[in-house]
Amino acid sequence: MPALSIIVTSYNIENYIAQCLDSVVNQTLRDLEVIVVDDGSTDGTPDIIRAYADRDPRIKPILMTENSIGGVATPANLGLDAATAPYIGFADGDDYCELDMFEKLLNAAEAGDHDLAMCKYKLLDESTGELADPAEVNRWNDLDERSYELDVEAKRDFLRFIAVPWRKIYKRSMIEREKIRFPIGDYFYEDNPFHWFSIISAESIAVVPEVLCFHRVTRAGQTMSTADERLFKIFLHHNTIRDWLTEREIEEVYRANLFAWVMSQMEWISERTPKELRETLFDCLRDIYSQYDAADIEAALVAGKKGLRAKKLSDSLAKNNLAKFNQFLDGRTRSNNPFMDGLYHLRYSGVRHTAGLASQYVGRRVSGMGNLTGRRNASEFKLDDVMFSLAVLQAQIKQIEEKLDTLVEKQEKD
C-alpha cells in the first residue's frame, strides 16, 4: 500500500499539466500513488496524462469522456473513490508544488496521527509571473504551535482559512468514516463545503508554516477569473453546509461562523459585481438573510470580525432595501464622520485593525499640516513645527476620546 494518494484534477490545461505532474512524480516522498482524473478535456491534456502514465507505474489515469457538471467535484470524488493510501492529497492540474511538499505534510501528520496537515501557499499571476500572498497570510501569525487538538474554538479558527484542498492532506479513514465528498451540482467552489466537512470532522491538525505550493491565477478559462453571475452560485453552498450541520445537530454551534462566511463571500463578490447584476446578487443574498434574525447578524459580524462594509450591506439586506444596497456599492453612504467610522471599526473589526486605520488617518492629517506651513520640504521641519503638530494631535485625540465615550454610552443605551 502506498503511503499517500495524490489526486490530480485536470480540464483543458495542456500548457500546464506537465509542470504539475513533474512536481508530483518527482516528490522526495517516493511511496505514492498518483490518481490523475481528467474531466473530459478536448485539448491535448489526456494525451499528456497517458504519456506520463506509460513512463511511471505510480500514475493511475482516469479519463472521463465528457465534461461533468459544475467544477471539480465529480473528478475529485472519482479520485477519492480510487484512493488506497492512509492519507490523501490533492493537486490542481495547472498548479505546481515544491518537491518536498508531500513528505513534509505526511511527516507532520504521522508524527501525531493527525487527521489533517496544512501548509502555506503562494498565488502565481499567470499574466505577470509575480508571486503574491493569499488573503489569509496574516492568520498564520496566530499559529505558534505545530499541531492543534480541534475543539470547537480551534475549529472555528481553522474554518476561517481559505478553503482550498490542495495545500492539505487528509486521513482517508476520516474521509470514509464521515462520508465526506465534494457536493455535485451546477456550481463552482465546491471546496468550501469540503473544507467545512473535513475541519469539523477532524480531531486534530498539523501545520507546516512553509510555502510549499503555488496556485496559478488569472489564467484564461479558470473559475477564479470569472466575474459574472456564475460567481453568485457560491452562495448555494450555504444551504449545503447548513444542512450538513443540522443533520449532526451542531448547526447552532457554528451558525455565526457560517453566516460570517457568507458575509466574507458577499464582500469579495460585491466588489466585482457590475451594476446590471446587483439585483441578482441582492436576491441571492436575501434568500440567505431571510433565514436569520437581527441577533444572528450581530453574532456573525462579531464572529467574522467584520467592519463597515459587511454591516452596511447586511443592514440593507435585513431590511430588504435594494436601493440602500446599491447606494452603498455606489459609494454614496460613506460616513463623513471619522468618529462614527472609528466606532464601528473598533466594535466590529477589532483594536488592531482600527489602530491601523487611525494611523493612516492621522498620517494624512499630519501631511496636510505640512502643506499648510508654506509647502516646505519635510526635512526642513523644525522642533517647533513638530511640537505644534503634536499639540494639535493631542487636542484631536482628546476630542476623539470624548466623542468615543459619548458614542459608546449611546450605543449601550440603544
What this model shows, in words?
The protein is an alpha/beta fold and 414 residues long. It folds into 3 domains: 4-225, Spore Coat Polysaccharide Biosynthesis Protein SpsA, Chain A; 234-329, no CATH class; 338-413, no CATH class. It has helices spanning 17-25, 45-55, 73-82, 101-111, 152-159, 172-177, 191-201, 236-247, 251-270, 278-289, 294-303, 308-318, 322-329, 338-348, 351-372, 383-413, and strands spanning 4-10, 32-38, 59-63, 87-92, 96-97, 116-125, 131-132, 147-149, 168-171, 204-217. Strands 1, 2, 3, 4, 5, 6, 7, 8, 9 and 10 form a 10-stranded mixed sheet that branches. α2 links the parallel β2 and β3 (59-63). The termini are far apart. The relative contact order is 0.08.
